[in-house]
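Form 7-S
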Amino acid sequence: MKKTKTIYTCSKCGHQHPKWQGFCNSCGAMSTLQEENKEKQSTITKISKGVASVKRLTEAKSKNSDRIITDLGEFNRVMGGGIVRDSITIITAKPGAGKSTLLLQVSQDLAQKGHKVLYASGEESDSQIKRRAERILSDVDEHIFVQSDTSLNNVLACIEEVDPDLIIIDSIQTFVLEEYNSRPGSPTQTMECANELLKVAKSPVRPRAVIMVGQMTKDDELAGLRALEHLVDTVLIIDGEHGEELKVLSASKNRYGSTGEMGFFSMTETGMVGIDNPSEFFMTQRDEVVSGSALTVIKEGTRPIIVEIESLVSPTFTPYPSRVGECMRKEQISTLTAILEQRANLQLLNQNVVIKTTGGIRLKEQSSNLAALMSIVSSYKDKGIPNDTVFIADIGLTGELKKVPALETRIKELERMGFKKVFIAKNALKHPYSFKQINVIPCNTLTEVIDKVFTDYPF
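Output:
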């Protein structure tokens, strides 16, 4: 009979303790130690001989992994061109963000192309999955197989029986292997289950694509050990609050593609619909000029996107004015308002400043700073900016405009969309007047931009 010993593992960092205590010695997290039974191993280490062969790197064969292409363009973009046949992917998001919905749409798309798909769920029953499928899919394809079970042993047996091309595990924290005596979601069970699925995906005889759903913590991070992220090939994240229409799919890790690409979806009653032209989604189509609105161009991966920034400046009745903005950090808003106060002589000490973007997209690039400042100035002066005018520049603490990368690509997107004027930093382009359909206006400082917009271009 094999001897066992009791250990206590931290569910956050995986550090093991010989006895229970109220906190983890490694990460300091409180009440995260979980009891597990582990077999005692012999102190004698056996060395196997002649198991692995070594070869020169120049002699190793190089092969390109085939991809399974879906009709979901935004999904393909983030994945790097499609699903690699021998890859293992994990997708995570907040509850209700659309993980299961997106994976059902991917399953239907591949099944219609003749690929077998196994959808194994440890959270929902067969009938629950069927009801969701009937709601978002017009006609469920017969190549989709479903299994409702928390035993990964049974799932592995089903894989041998069905022989699927794509395996979906929803979610990895709900499955257990019978060989390990610990509860579902524990670090041991999660990692061992993921390792078994890795063997299935990387099998040299029959490679398969595996997509796992991972639960998200309250800190908006993938639940479980960090080793789980190192194990998989791709880590996908769906960003979007419950009830919001806009859903953003991005990859924080991708061995087969870029991590800078983002896919935009609109959540509807019939599932997630890709937004093919995000520039039209993230700005308001209006004929009249309104105050507090300015346009810029951000770059998500290889794609330039025109974004509208709206600001509201209003008097405060408290000692400390508020700086509110879900699209950027509060510290960044405070920095921008300080630049306006010092360099443009705007009195904002007794004014509340609220900033948001149309569509709810976050402003991660510094190229949007000039547009954010101009939207604040527009609201403060209660004067609108022409709808055909765009601002693409960073701003320094000195009030000087700074150049941004890929500026020519951004301006070409503006030309395609029919805009007439764009303000940029001086010397940001070698040939700023080479564009024929749009007027490129280089400026040195923020005050120069304000003067040109509200004085030189009256309306």
